[in-house]
Amino acid sequence: MSEHKKYLDEVKSKLLKRKLEIEEILISLSKEKISDDQVQDLGDQAITSAMEAIRGSYQNTEHEEYNMILKALKALENGTYGVCIDCSQPISEKRLKYYPNASRCLACQESIEGPIS
Ligand SMILES: [Zn+2]
User: Fold this and answer.
1) How far apart are alpha carbons 22 and 62 in whole angstroms?
2) What is the DSSP string of 58-72?
3) pLDDT for the residue 27
4) Model confidence pLDDT, tens digit, residues 57-110
5) Where does residue 13 fall: left (phi above 0), alpha (psi -120 to 50 degrees), or beta otherwise?
6) Would you tell me which of 6, 18, 72, 105 could form a disulfide with 84, CB atoms 3.0–4.6 Å apart?
7) What are 34-72's pLDDT values in tens digits?
8) Measured in angstroms, how far is the CA atom of residue 85 from the centroid of ligand 1?
9) How many angstroms separate the alpha carbon of residue 70 from the centre of ligand 1?
10) Would the CA dihedral through 32, 34, 35, 39 be positive or negative?
11) Mean predicted lDDT score pLDDT of the chain
């Protein structure tokens, strides 16, 4: 097994692990929501809606990460993971370590966002 293949396998198992974690969070969040609704008190309406807003935004973050993981896993399957979408050059493993979902190499990313200090 080549070093790169080994590295991709590591990434994949990390992504799968994180995917399961998020699935658990999302499931527990939706369970929580159901039990809250059952003890709904009109007097607590304001607090409830505030909490809904907080929970909603948290859930969105989880959903966003979840979608990114699904995308990365698909790219791994297709063999396009870690390849820059702009210049088709491999993205450095160092960069992928910090940005597992990076779809551009550092040079291309900088040309879009400006130099990263
Ligand atoms: Zn590039």
Assistant:
1) 6
2) HHHHHHHHHHHHHHH
3) 87
4) 777 888 888 998 999 999 999 988 999 999 999 999 889 888 877 889 999 999
5) alpha
6) 105
7) 555 555 566 677 777 877 777 777 778 888 889 989 999
8) 7
9) 22
10) positive
11) 84
76 CB neighbour count, 10 Å cutoff: 17
- CA 88 – ligand 1 centroid, Å: 6
Cα of first residue to Cα of last residue in the chain, in angstroms, is 36
Measured in Å, residue 53 CA sits from the centre of ligand 1 at: 38
DSSP type of residue 90: B
Here the tokens at position 110 are: 């900088």
β-bridge mates for residue 83, sequence order: 90
Quick check: helix, strand or coil at residue 39? coil
* Count of CB atoms situated within 10 Å of the CB of 77: 10
Note the pLDDT of residue 14.
92
